[in-house]
Write the structure tokens for this entry.
Amino acid sequence: MAKKKYYAVAVGRTCGIFTDWPAAEAQVKGFPGARYMSFASEEEARAWLDDPTYRKGDVEKKRPPAGPAVQPQPSQQPEGILVYTDGGCLNNPGPGGYGVIIEHDGERHELSGGFRLTTNNRMEMMAAIIALEELQGTRQRIHLYSDSSYLVNGIEKGWAKKWRNNGWSKSDGRAALNSDLWRKLLALLEGLMVEFHWVKGHAGHEQNERCDRLAVAMARQR
């Protein structure tokens, strides 16, 4: 039996991770400047999308997997404000965008924006920052859902605070990337009650898919 492969598409009609070649091929075939690669694990595929300097085999050192994917159903949605975010770029680095959905009391608010030159990770972080800036002052619990293990683990596993306490250096002495955005994000979290949850991208999650479309649309306008 053939081993399962994961196809990461960094530049194509739809960017993300696909589990079968026909679906991935449809995103890159005939697309100018298409950029994609296959991997043996989803973690490696995600690491490559998040970091263009990533090399196969580095995933255990660079990208510990996030917790189980969370996709709340209407009957089990937690109380409070629900926030969904996504971000990415058409190349990594390259023009990028972010998308945000905020749901509360039956109302839905969407936000989006983009930058001419950025990275996947920075757009994932910007989406969360924009959402939390919008919610400053609320006393309700916020549940933020993202498909970025870099963002979710950075907060929930305490990576960002460790980097800050270490002068924005990692345990191996290398500089922690995106320290400007981590500083801003940690400052925003000081006055809020926020739980970060990881959701699997491109897996049929309605709000995540919508945020992805918002992000891609903004990236294409840069």
